[in-house]
Structures are given as C-alpha cells and as structure tokens.
Specification:
The protein is 8% helix and 43% strand. By secondary structure, the chain is mainly beta. The protein folds into two domains: 15-169, Acid Proteases (Cathepsin D, subunit A, domain 1, Beta Barrel), CATH 2.40.70.10; 191-327, Cathepsin D, subunit A, domain 1 (Beta Barrel), CATH 2.40.70. The strands form three sheets. It has a ten-stranded mixed sheet. A six-stranded mixed barrel has the order 6-7-12-8-11-10. A six-stranded antiparallel sheet has the order 4-14-13-24-25-26, with no helix packed on it. It is globular and about 55 Å long.
C-alpha cells in the first residue's frame, strides 16, 4: 500500500494501494493455488468500512482468520495478487518462512512467502493458501490486504455502497457441490481499457485498495488543460516516491460510464508497466468506485460497472441504458 509522508496529504487521501508479487533472485514463485474447502454455493460476505481519517472511507475490510488465529482486518484489494500481512502476525499464526518474493508497487519490497493451512472468512474456508509477509506494517490502520482474485472461482458482485461481496457459483453440470476447478484460479489485476478525457486510449487498473486515483506523468503532460502542482513526497509500502496532484478534472471512460475521481495524482508508473507487460497509464482508486456495484467475471474476463438501483450517475453521451461489461486485459 502507498501512503503520504505528510499528515496533511494522508488526510486528503493522497494514497495508493496494491501489491503484486514477482519472482525475486531466481526463487520460484509459489503459484500453487489455494483450495476451496467450503461447499461451492452462494455466499454473501459482509464488508466493513476502512477509514484513513474520521468520515473518510478509503476502502473496505474483510475479517480473516489464518490457521485459527485472531481475526485480522484485511483490506479487500483488487490490485493485489497475494494476501500480505506483517511478520509479527505471520509468526503468531505459525506461518513458516518460505521463498522470498518482490512486492511491486511504486518500487519493490522483499517479502517472505509461507502457506496457511487454513483460511476462514465467515462461512468460507480455504486451505493451502499462500501468504506473503513483510517487516513492519503493510498499511496503517489495518492488518494487511487480501486479493479480490482469491474468490475468482465465483462470479463476484462487489456492492460497495451496501458493503457486500456476493460470491455466485457458475452454473455447471454434474456435481454442483464442488467448484469448476480443483483450486481457485489465479488471475492478474482488473486491467481495463479506458479513454482519458476523451483523448488518450490505454489501460488502467481498477484498484479497490487504492486511496485515490492516479495517472502516469507522461499521460498528464499530454492531456490539454491538465494542471499539476509541485511535487509532493509519497511513502510507499514498496518504497518512497514523488508525485504531483492534478488540479484539473480527469475523466475515466470505462464500459460507457464516465468516472471522475475527486483527486488524481500524477506518478511514475513505469515500474508497474514493466511488470505487467503493458503500459499502465492510470489507477482508478476506491473513492472513484465507492458509489458503484461491480460485477467481476474472472472466468470470462469481464467487469461490469453499475450504479445502485435508483441512483443516477454520469454516463457517456452515446451510452446505452444497459451497461455493457468491459473486457479485462490479463497479462
């Protein structure tokens, strides 16, 4: 997760989150997927608001037990690939130290990777689940992050206004008590095509673990009317960096919705682009998504963005009444 050094910027939400694990020093990646133990049926998981400051929600939390330990408050993060917690919590639940991985964000941070024998989220249980752990805090105010893609064996309905995560089993023939695969399939981020300010086409990451939205510095320079203020220092869970606040409005056109974040930061995103294999020109953070219901279909690679029933949101001028899904661009 990324957070601002200065308290003023922390209060204003100049924070980005999301971690991705990659191979470090030629150590094999722990890519064996976790196994779903619970019956393959519908689940509705209650989410809890996560605040960086009073009256300023910047994410949602799930309560998770690892190896039967105390409940951990983990940020639900569509921009993360692994569960990430601190070393202290990892030791308390008996996680043994395994291979090292790099957690990639603005910079890189080395983490150890172990495997949890059990993982419990309300009525839902997994086993043999990879967990990365780092020295110190992953994110202030929470115990770590949990990737949305952990639940990719299901069709997901992430209702952020109502703070509910619905897990809907895919239809299948034969035995309906088991998931479509023996393990939960691991996928990349919610990387979707967008048009910024009606001019710049490319890919952005929809990141429920990001405290605000961002665009790359290169993109910010090309957008007419995009004004940026002097650089501010940002501290990241993966290393320190500098960014610039964009004072003009940035429009993200995705799936016929026109999303306009209240705050956007211009950052060097080249480190992310090099690891994802495509140019990442922006990140759409939690505050920009908080009024929407997201339906994520990892199996077919689609995400649908809808406002809650009865709520009017800004659409593109040519938009149809029914919101079409946006295809996901997996690496």
């Amino acid at each position: 997760m990324w957070r601002s050094v200065a308290a003023a910027f922390l209060l204003s939400g100049l924070v980005l989150g999301g971690v991705r694990a990659v191979e470090a020093r030629s150590t094999p990646a722990p890519d064996a997927p976790p196994e779903l133990v619970s019956p393959y049926q519908q689940y509705d998981l209650k989410l809890h608001a996560f605040y960086s400051a009073p009256l300023c929600p910047v994410g949602v939390l799930l309560q998770v037990r690892i190896n039967g330990g105390r409940p951990l408050r983990l940020v639900l993060d569509s921009g993360a690939e692994f569960i990430v917690i601190g070393t202290k919590d990892a030791r308390s639940v008996g996680l043994s130290s395994g291979p090292e991985m790099d957690l990639v964000g603005l910079e890189s941070r080395v983490a150890k990777v172990g495997r949890a024998e059990t993982l419990e989220i309300g009525p839902l249980s997994f086993r043999n689940c990879p967990v990365a752990f780092v020295k110190g805090n992953v994110i202030e105010g929470a115990d770590g992050v949990i990737p949305l893609s952990l639940f990719s064996a299901f069709l997901l309905r992430l209702d952020l206004p109502e703070k509910m995560l619905g897990l809907i089993p895919y239809p299948r023939e034969g035995n309906t008590d088991v998931p479509p695969t023996h393990g939960v399939t691991k996928h990349d981020l919610l990387l979707v095509a967008t048009v910024l300010n009606g001019k710049r086409n490319g890919y952005v990451v929809m990141d429920t673990g990001a405290y605000c939205s961002a665009i790359s510095r290169e993109v910010a320079r090309t957008l007419n009317g995009s004004q940026i203020v002097p650089e501010v220092r940002l501290a990241a869970g993966t290393g320190a960096a500098t960014g610039q606040r964009v004072s003009s409005s940035i429009h993200f056109a995705i799936a016929e919705q026109d999303l306009i974040p209240d705050e956007v930061v211009a950052l060097d995103l080249s480190n992310l682009s090099s690891h994802f294999g495509v140019e990442v020109m922006g990140v759409l953070g939690f505050p920009a998504l908080t009024h929407y219901v997201l339906t994520i279909d990892y199996r077919d690679g689609q995400v649908k963005i809808e406002p809650p029933q009865g709520v009017s949101t800004r659409k593109l001028p040519h938009a149809h009444n029914a919101e079409p899904p946006a295809p996901l661009a997996f690496r």
